[in-house]
Amino acid sequence: MEHDPAETAPEPEAPETFVVGDVHGHRAELVAALHTRGLVDPDGHWTGGPRHLWFLGDFVDRGPDGIGVIELVMALAAQAAEAGGQVQTLLGNHEILLLGMHKFGDEEVPSDFGPRSFARSWEMNGGLRSDQDALTDDHVAWLTSRPVVALVGDDLLMHSDTTEYLFWGEDIETVNTTVSDILHSDDIVEWWELWRRMTTRYAFRGPAGEAAVDELLAAYGGTMVIHGHSVIADALGVPPALIDGPYEYAGGKALGIDAGLFVGGPCLITKIPWESTLWAEEDD
User: How far is residue 25's CA from residue 238's CA, in Å, rounded to a whole number?
Assistant: First the structure.
């Protein structure tokens, strides 16, 4: 019987995949970091070929050009697709705030806890008028079509280090559909709850942190949660400028990648799956 070479052909290698945390309007720093990884040229055009790149949200607020960051990522998604690669995006809490401000402005949110509005929260959380003024219908349509959670291999990607995602569903598809429905609605209370829950943090720290991660992994799959939202330097008690890599914690089941770009930290471009150093350090 003649041997079929296809039977022993090696499996094609999966493309390299990278994740990026909170950019907060720092377009130039983002381009420089992506260029260092060989993913873009100095002008910000895709050079990553078949590689995959995920952004975990918070493109806007606190930095000079949030809309410029959004437009860069939109362009990279199209360019990467043409080259056989992928650029994908999750929504962060600041995108929800940007959209809520755009949609509702100073409209009061019904509450028993005093006056609340998206405009008030937007101003308190680094919102920039230049971002609002430059926001177009195309930006809004693109943002409101983004998911909030994704499973990439064994990595569960999300913006916020919180278990509040479970409020929107017991599986990834339900979570993303529920959030999409809210973002395409006119219900200011539901919008506010989405914003409020997405701002919570630190669920994976402390004695109960590993159990909180396990709860998410049991529902959505994967072996590690990768998130932005909470600045690594705050957890370690060091200046942001000293951060040089992600923060692995919760028994090696959580990886924080927000190095605090808006407060002087680096723009981390992290390759996944992450090669754990936690156990090696403990064995030394």
Answer: 23
**Do residues 175 and 165 touch, judged by C-beta distance below 8 A?**
yes
- CA dist 243 and 236 (Å) reads 9
What is the tens place of the pLDDT at every residue in 177-188?
999 999 999 999
Domain extent for 252: 15-206+223-275
Q: Which helix (H) or strand (E) holds 269?
A: strand 269-272
Decide: residue 16, CB within 10 A, 0-12 exposed, 13-18 middle, 19+ buried. middle
pLDDT tens for residues 235-279?
Answer: 999 999 999 999 999 999 999 999 999 999 999 999 999 998 765
* Tally of domains in the chain: 1
Tokens of 260: 């605090």
CATH number at residue 84: 3.60.21.10
Residue 233 lies in a domain: yes
Instruction: In whole angstroms, give the CA distance from residue 263 to residue 48.
Output: 28
Mean pLDDT of all residues in 104-133 = 93
Residue 216 within a domain: no
